[in-house]
Amino acid sequence: SAKVIDGKACAKKIREEIAAEISRMKEAIGVVPGLAVILVGSRKDSQTYVRNKQKACEGVGITSHEVRLPEDCSEEEVLNHISCFNDDPSVHGILVQLPLPRHMNEERILNAVSIEKDIDGFHPLNIGRLAMQGREPLFVPCTPKGCMELLHRHGVEISGKRAVVIGRSNIVGMPASLLLQRQNATISIVHSYTRNPEEITREADIVISAVGVANLVRGSWIKPGAVVIDVGINPVDDPDSPRGYRLVGDVCYEEASQVASAITPVPGGVGPMTIAMLLSNTLDSAKRIHRFK
Ligand code: NAD
């Protein structure tokens, strides 16, 4: 059965490396990285994500700045805060927690973040550079970057391989497919209109699934020996759990782990890596802004 790709352990190691770099930077130039988080509205899941990100910042020595705004605040208010953080030299990364309330123009808001501080990598200029040959984005979105880091740290060869990304969202699927392509994989993208997802996925040496449907990807979808990265986080009813539910991925783990050569668990796979990459992007930003090598 498949080797388990331990994202939790991998993320811990990365956080330790980041903490050591931050101490070195602080000693050398007296600067610590700063991350600003803007949270609009009161979605429970967004609040949890923001809290986890801030805890992780504290753990490695990144200062976090937070702005919480009510659901009904104006777009101008959000833009004003972004503008202040763009100008604040103690802030090296700006994160606008998505989704934004429906009355706001997400494109306009993400456009307002300075590309030098776009640690989520969602600014169209950074995405555009990611898509173009010979261009370098300043930042790569954290979740797909975490997937690539897991592949690299587990010695998975990408160049020349067939890769299938299931899902094509702006925050995960699309950038994941661009990253794999940049590393010379031949990619196919499976989405909600794909007629024969099983057949296409079975051609892949590397599968990244980011859909949000529990147990969508069955063992029969996986080519024997493939590497499977499961980004999905889906609650399913579980009367045995104190919360009444548990979290599973998009991939039917029991089946796929019988066929794959390596697989990420949910939880404990991509999730912890996403936060580690956020910290890493914030550190990289501070280093670039202060020209610290
Ligand atoms: P999304 O809803 O924005 O996008 C889902 C994508 O899946 C769409 O492109 C859609 O075309 C595709 N899709 C929908 N139904 C499909 C089907 N039956 N077959 C094939 N494709 C289908 O979601 P998202 O923001 O990309 O998130 C996807 C999943 O990843 C969610 O479960 C989310 O919770 C999880 N996620 C995890 C992390 C992490 O850190 N681990 C980060 C972000 C998102």
UniProtKB/TrEMBL annotation:
Name used for this protein in its record: Uncharacterized protein
Portion of the full sequence shown: 69 to 361 of 361
Cleaved signal peptide residues: none
Organism of origin: Spirodela intermedia
UniProt domain Tetrahydrofolate dehydrogenase/cyclohydrolase NAD(P)-binding: residue ranges: 141-288
Family as reported in the entry's similarity comment: Belongs to the tetrahydrofolate dehydrogenase/cyclohydrolase family.
Function field: Catalyzes the oxidation of 5,10-methylenetetrahydrofolate to 5,10-methenyltetrahydrofolate and then the hydrolysis of 5,10-methenyltetrahydrofolate to 10-formyltetrahydrofolate.
Molecular function terms from GO: methenyltetrahydrofolate cyclohydrolase activity; methylenetetrahydrofolate dehydrogenase (NADP+) activity
GO BP: photorespiration; tetrahydrofolate interconversion
